[in-house]
Request: fold
Amino acid sequence: MKTILLLLNVFITHAALSQKVIQLYNGIPKGSENWTWNEQVSTRNMFNTEVIYNVTQPTITAYLPPKEAANGTAVIVAPGGAFHTLSINSEGVDVARWLNSKGVAAFVLKYRVARSFTDDPVAELMAKMGDFKKLDEENAPIIPLATADGLAAVKYVRDHAVEMNINPEKIGFMGFSAGGTLTMSVVYTATDENRPNFVAPVYAYEPAILGSTVPSVKTPIFVAVAGDDQLNMMPFSINIYRKWYDAKQPAELHIYEKGGHGFGMHKQGLPTDTWYERLGDWMKMQGLMTPPPPPANPFQRIPTPNDTLQSVRQLADKRVVFSIYAPEAHAVTVSGDFPDGYPGLALSKDYNGVWSVTTKAALTPNIYTYDFQVDGIRTFDPKNPDFKESNNGVFNLYEIKGPENDFQSLKDVPHGKVEKVLYTSTALNGITRRLHVYLPPDYDQISKKSKLPVLYLLHGGGENDASWTTSGRANLILDNLYAEGKLKSMIVVMPAGHTPVKAIAMGAGPEQDPFCQDFLTDILPLIEKTYPVSTQREDRAIAGLSMGGIQTLNIALWHPEKFGYVYPMSTGYFPNSIQEITEKYTAVMKNPAINQFKNFTIGMGKDDGLAFNNNKAMMALFDKNGMRYQYRETSGSHSFLVWRENLAWFAPQLFR
Reply:
């Protein structure tokens, strides 16, 4: 029957595909002249999925990739549903979208099915599934009509191939369950004008197939089924494969141990979750997924799902979804300082090549670090410009806004400025080093008439001199404190704690740490020469976290005359260092100048599994030597989630 395009004009642009609904017949199709019911959609059923039923006007919905991405191949997709319903998403639309992501034009077929008499067609169907013989008898007059719909779909696509950027010799037909039965009925009963060039029956029901003659022309077949199929479709898939194999046709069979019937595009945590990737491999081997030639315009880029991807987003229940586009990857994880972020969460891949995972726990307002591991390689999120710089590279940052996060968020307040300063370190054999300096919002005015106090703020192991202004948000925290009138104007110096001489030095005393030598010999004089800072003890403060906390102690306790404020965070001497201090440095610990600090506070997160015990032993050593200090314990572990709050707490207490 002549097919025409009725101008329903349902055009939708979504990512890289456009959709068009095409009616396959002009008027009432032959065989259903007396059908008076109308097509319906069911969403409330035992399968909890959208199904189409009572189809009377067969259509194909075209999912066309952008012209520059099209590789010339097309596939008609027939959903399953025992010729009573159509599982339109998992076995239709989702398949089409995956094919689109590979440059393949897809056409989701709505073919005629048996009539349902209630608004719950799934329940009606399931009541019949116990008697396949009776079900086959009921479906017998329907299958020829559905087959005619499938043949009409092939003919339409071939007749209009050129206008849709399709090669008329690369038109395939695939289907699931009853759609697989339809696939084989189409290829067995077709003529040259409506025969598909390749087919892919997935868990097809063989007894109801019309015809049985394998085409004489080359017609590759891809067959897939699960061994635990509840409807026992595996023997039928083997029979179909064997018939094709015996006819010396290109044939490939995939039998999955588990997956059940109707796995479609569902995710079950099983190998069937990626069966379509095996279909893609097969299509590439058959020359059906050849990439299109590069565009003539070198600045023209082929659209991908990455174009509109939001890599981090928070759900209504406060959980967070992480996503990354990596279509060729085999395994992706994400880790960070969010709940359950260590050792990391495994992402699952969808049919568009987008990997995603949802956190188990809700995330409260804060700033979190994360990074992806793609096939074992740490990968920066290209969709997120916010990052933390460290000695180990860059890590992404994600901010969840809220009242709890207000103290460290970017706000419309006067801002200070951060300078990057290069200097020559004489203590480190003349190498060039870098440090960061934060100048307060009123620096230009106050520096002309006053000497400013200075805070030396040290980072932890693996970090660098930019960590406090990226992950630490130190400049924003200080800006907000200034705006609230809580802070005395000060300069903040953030040096690089690692050196090429010794990466991490955690021993006792400044002589064992090249950084401490650099600090005392070069950094202090540089700052006091370059900036209008006070050189009085009461106008100097030093604070550091983890490794920087040890460096803070090694500098301040061995040179207490230089500092009025000392704040080590999440740190503690290791047992061998405590023993060394006990044996060699008791005089240092008993120096009366230590107890003249205006404020000596030790900060610790109560869940810090790295430093808590060392800190406890260190404080016992301090107590034994009569050192006066304060201890502040907060919630949290060993991360900037704790240290940003620490800075916001202790900075207002400085230089009062």
